[in-house]
Amino acid sequence: MLELSKVTRRFGPNTAVDAVSLSIPEGQMVGIIGRSGAGKSTLLRMINRLTGVSDGVITHSGKPVSSLSGRELRNWQRDCAMIFQQFNLVPRLDVVSNVLHGTLNMRSTFATMFNLFPREDILRAISILERLGVAENATKRAEALSGGQQQRVAIARALMQSPKLVLADEPIASLDPLNAQIVMDALKDINEREGITVVTNLHTLDTARNYCERIIGMAQGRVVFDGKPDELTTDAVREIYGAGADGAEISEAMTSTSLNARGRAADVKVKTNAAGEVVLETA
Ligand SMILES: Nc1ncnc2c1ncn2[C@@H]1O[C@H](COP(=O)(O)OP(=O)(O)OP(=O)(O)O)[C@@H](O)[C@H]1O
Ligand SMILES: [Mg+2]
């Protein structure tokens, strides 16, 4: 169980995440949605401790994640692998070495410097790449791959860490619809087959609905919705996306109509009508 208790992050006078409390059981697939600036990335980064916590406590299986340091902190960061929108691979390095870098914090500096990897790790890396359908690119430089392929390599690198959790920050935001679907299917698959908890920020509502058993909606640093996809009513969507005090419009980019995984729920579009009201359109 991952537990957040009144977790807050301030940047100067701004509160990016405001007293968020959540319990995420092992094996859940959770989507976090919300407008730009709602605090989604900051929340994920605090869980992984890429960003420190200003107030509140994060624990995992009773371990106080938010106050770990040194070796214990490194172990935690290995247990919760991060996936980023921009993949964060080493572009000039071959694919299999990129994946093997997932074992870096288990290895000596010396072995790392000379790219010395045990044979069993290399075989494991290749079998993970195979599973993700990108093994034929194992010897290519990462930069030679398409975005969708690179993101699958990033997922392979994450799996190489044998993580307990995968945290993905808008993993499909830079991908075309087909690659977005392939990458989301891969995340769903590791969640279902290995039982790894997946927490992912998503900028499209329908992707969250199609893939996640639980959706958390954030607005202005707070959790304003937490429930199953079918509990996400029009009002809930308005509260998540429409609460802008500035009256800013809901943009079409918040939804995408092209992802319809596994024949699940129909797409829902969030639109602003001529009167400036937020409306939902079901396909
Ligand atoms: N390192 C930082 N320094 C100062 N302010 C920051 C920093 N990181 C985030 N913020 C602020 O915290 C708030 C939340 O940002 P965050 O990146 O978490 O939002 P987000 O929901 O991920 O948005 P997006 O959908 O655009 O990625 C924003 O107001 C942002 O400007
Ligand atoms: Mg973000």
If you had to describe this structure to a student in words, what would you say it looks like?
This protein is 32% helix and 25% strand. β7, α7 (177-194) and β8 form a beta-alpha-beta unit. It is globular and about 50 Å long. It has helices spanning 40-48, 70-79, 95-100, 109-113, 119-131, 147-160, 177-194, 205-211, 234-241, and strands at residues 2-11, 14-24, 29-34, 55-60, 63-64, 80-84, 165-169, 197-201, 214-219, 222-227, 268-272, 278-282. It has a 6-stranded mixed sheet with strand order 6-7-8-3-9-10, sandwiched between helices. Strands 2-1-4-5 form a 4-stranded antiparallel sheet, covered by helices on one side. The protein has a single domain, classed as Rossmann fold (3-Layer(aba) Sandwich). It has 9 helices and 12 strands. α5 crosses α6 and α6 runs parallel beside α7. It is an alpha/beta fold and 283 residues long. Adenosine-5'-triphosphate binds next to β2 and α1. The site of adenosine-5'-triphosphate has 11 residues, from β2 and α1.
Number of domains: 1
**Total of DSSP H or I helical runs spanning 4+ residues:** 9
User: Which spans of ≥5 residues are poorly predicted at pLDDT below 50?
Assistant: 243-249, 251-268
Distance between the termini: 36 Å
Features:
12 strands; 25% strand; binds magnesium ion; 283 residues; alpha/beta; Rossmann fold; four-stranded antiparallel sheet; 9 helices
Give the SSE layout.
Blueprint: E1 2-11, E2 14-24, E3 29-34, H1 40-48, E4 55-60, E5 63-64, H2 70-79, E6 80-84, H3 95-100, H4 109-113, H5 119-131, H6 147-160, E7 165-169, H7 177-194, E8 197-201, H8 205-211, E9 214-219, E10 222-227, H9 234-241, E11 268-272, E12 278-282
Parallel strand pairs: 3-8, 3-9, 6-7, 7-8
Antiparallel strand pairs: 1-2, 1-4, 4-5, 9-10, 11-12
Helix pairs in contact: 5-6, 6-7
